[in-house]
Amino acid sequence: MQVHLKGRLVPVKEAVVSVFDHGFLYGDGVYETMRVYEGVTFMLDEHLRRLYRSASMIGLTIPLEMDSLKTSIYDTLIANSLKNAFVRLTVSRGHGPIGLDPDLCPEPTIVIIAQELKDYPKSFYEKGISLVIPETKRNLMEALNPRIKSLNFLNNILAKIETKKRGAYEAVMLNVYGKLTEGTISNVFFYKDGILCTPSLECGILDGITRGVVIDLALRDGLGVKEGEFTKEDLYPAAEVFITSTTLELMPVSKVDDQKYAVGNITKLLHKAYREEVNVYVANVKAEGPSLWGYE
Ligand code: PMP
After folding, report:
1. Which residue from 205, 167, 187 is spatially nearest to 242, judged by alpha carbons?
2. Which of 122, 149, 179, 272 is catalytic?
3. pLDDT for 123-140, tens place per residue?
4. Mind spelling out the 3-state secondary structure of 25-75?
């Protein structure tokens, strides 16, 4: 396995970062996870735009143009002969003396890891997964805005620990005002009274790229969509619940706390539409020429 580290491909054993890297010391950095279908990175521009936005929200300048990052992503995929994969692109503040001041770090550390994507168990999609609403509240927007996709993941990890203790797969965290936000690695949707509902960005969530695609597809297919402030009492009586993320796509939810749900038609329909959207995207990128997607 080859890892892209500081501008070059190195064997995984040599892909090591300094103990003085502020990503390691303070979680000071940002990242993106992308999914690759048939050698094409889905929604690449959107992911990279979000990466630059996250970086700018923490005052971190990525010293490379977007095109250069794209080339590095494809070089990493080619070096590892990967076609169905995920890519994790990390930009940390870089190496510097101990101390919080970002100016201590002259150069960000950029790492690209590409690995084969192991399919999630089929049963997850057929039967759904369980969610809990944990005690851990989502970070306040005014403290650490969840729109920053940062390396600082302890909020999510604390929720994940609770989730595992309660035997569930994913959480949907509330904010400090008791409104639904998002999962530890996913956005959440529910279908109720003929409307597809999902917490709005103002609730303090990451603007998931999958979430955005699903909203667009739902609107295109004539579904009513409401982005708003919801409580757990709004969610419990829903007809269908599902979560979204780049790697999970749309995953049905069969249980939230003690409430049970069937895997419903709206979830199935939207997942099918999502898959079709991916296929169209992949075909379009390939039609633009091999230089963009690397190899046959
Ligand atoms: N929320 C959080 C906290 C996440 O970590 C993720 C995964 N990146 C998502 C939502 C889903 O975002 P996306 O659809 O862009 O993968």
Report:
1. 187
2. 149
3. 999 999 999 999 999 999
4. HHCCEEEEEEEEECCEECCHHHHHHHHHHHHHHCCCCCCCCHHHHHHHHHH
Confidence bin at 56 (pLDDT 50/70/90): very high
Pair (111, 78) in one structural domain:
yes
Q: Tokens 């939230």 sit at which residue?
A: 256
Give every CB contact of residue 69 below 8 A, 6+ residues apart in sequence: 48, 51, 62, 89, 110
What are 111's strand-pairing partners?
Answer: 5, 90
Structural domain of 221: 122-281
Tokens linked to 125 = 């999609």
Please check whether residue 57 lies inside any domain of the structure.
yes
Residue 152, domain member (yes or no) = yes
Q: How far apart are CA 296 and CA 291, in angstroms?
A: 10
pLDDT of residue 291: 66
CA 284 to ligand 1 centroid distance, Å: 25
Residue with CA closest to ligand 1 atom 9: 186
Alpha carbon dihedral 214, 216, 218, 219, in 10-degree steps, equals: 160
Same domain flag for 147 and 274 = yes
Share of the chain above pLDDT 90, in %: 96
Whether 149 is a known active-site residue: answer yes
Query: What spacing in Å lies between the alpha carbon of 98 and ligand 1's midpoint?
Result: 30
- Surface-to-core class of residue 221, CB atoms within 10 Å of its CB (0-12 exposed, 13-18 middle, 19+ buried): exposed
Please tell me the total count of domains within the chain: 2
